[in-house]
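Deadline looming. Please check this record:
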Amino acid sequence: MLRQLRIQDERLVESDAANGQGHVYIAPEESEKRYLIDEVKLDEHTLNSALDPDEPSRLEFEPEHIALIFKRPRNYCSETEFLFKADSMGLFLFPQRLIIVVSEETPLFEGRQFAKVRDLHGVLLKVIYRRIFHFEEHLKVINKITEELEGEISTAMTNKNLLNLFTLEKSLVYYLNAISTNGKVVEKMRANAQRVGLSPENLEFLDDVLIENGQCYEQAAIYSQVLAGMMDARGTIVSNNLNVLMKALNLVMLMLMLPMLVVSIFSMNVALPLQQHPWAFSIILGIGLVTVAIVGFIWWYKRL
């Protein structure tokens, strides 16, 4: 699917094929790929890299354009079961147009950053900035889910919550790698600002992008370290909960076994004390209840 936009009154608006400056290809079909390769002269490998989720970020200088592969968070759905992964996108900057290739529908031009745009270089930088902000939004969601799972683990003894935490830890590893490669690309753009064609205003904004990406990486690293450091403690909590439950079950079994022992002794087919006593049944039952009371008192006194 193709979306076309242009800059009008320092804002991005929908456009037609005649005067479109921004071309957004969402999950391009084979015919659209052939057009980009044959007519627009995009490198086929670079175009395929823009749709490959495992492709690292990179910046390449082609004769007629600049090719940028940048990582972005993949849209989250419930079927992934707390697994957050990164995807790739391609940004191809020509003198008169910007081509963006993504594998799925995703918000590209939302947010206050796009309230004022003057040129295609500014659009490119703000798309990059929006992707970094998108990572930060996902990190907040991951942190919130982690806190909720922590509360459930303290009372539940199933493996489901622990497996969910392992999945979140894996997600943070993916995000750390994606954010790190994005940062290297931004640094390369900063080092080749003149070759990229950045104005002083764009260069100042690029510095903000570099700082924001660094903060995003630090935030992801902190979440990852805290989650990894607490996994053993959470496993210990589950084991402790299991030990408490087993102790309680053993106590119940002991309280049941002692009365059964008393009753079994007086049920033997031999001469026994109290067998001719008119209150024998009540006495035996009382002895059993006393044993239960003694075990219960010891448990309460020792706080087992």
In short: Strands lie at 2-8, 11-14, 22-26, 58-61, 66-73, 86-93, 98-102. DSSP finds seven helices and seven strands in the chain. The chain has a mean pLDDT of 82.
